[in-house]
Amino acid sequence: MTMDQQAPAGDEKERTHPAFRDELRSWARDLLIAVGLAAVIIVFLYQPVKVEGTSMVPLLSDQERIFVNKFVYRFEPIQRGDVVVFWYPLDRSKSFIKRVVALPGELVEMRDGKLYVNSRLLPEQFVPREYLDSSSFGPYTIPDDQYFVMGDHRSSSNDSRVFGPVPREAIYGKAVFAYWPFDRFGVISETLTHAQNSSK
Fold first, then answer.
1. DSSP-derived secondary structure for 56-111
2. Would you name the residues annotated as active-site residues?
């Protein structure tokens, strides 16, 4: 006569432990892969940058931390309105961050603080009224493969009005994401919208 024998509780635990350990190893492996991929993306595609100065207020504040996309301009052209990071033309050991306001071949001119491109007034909704100045510049035709850049805080910006247009090869990234301080967290375009609303 045979009888079904119930396995001792200790034996049941021994059978479940290996399965739990295997699952735990699988989760740990997936987590390490995800962290590794994130590190590769950050190191090779994005660069953390600390903003110094007030020339891009209210979009970017002094000491704010952002990520710069270093590869975006390999796949798409630089456009008017882009906030770019570039090597300072007068000292290549320094980086500046400004907004592109005019493109190669365009005629740029400032008349009493108002920006004209190809003789047409350029709407600049991202420049609050209190940050405008009354300076004049040009007219000036931008050479090929160069870009005219300016800070949003016009009365506190060392930009192309001073050091001239920026060569294409000096522009190495586009500001895409703010991560510190935390209340500024978000993609730069959303931060711009917030800055516009807060300045009204």
1. TTTTS-TT-EEEEESSGGGTS---TT-EEEEE-TT-TT-EEEEEEEE-TT-EEEEE
2. 55, 98
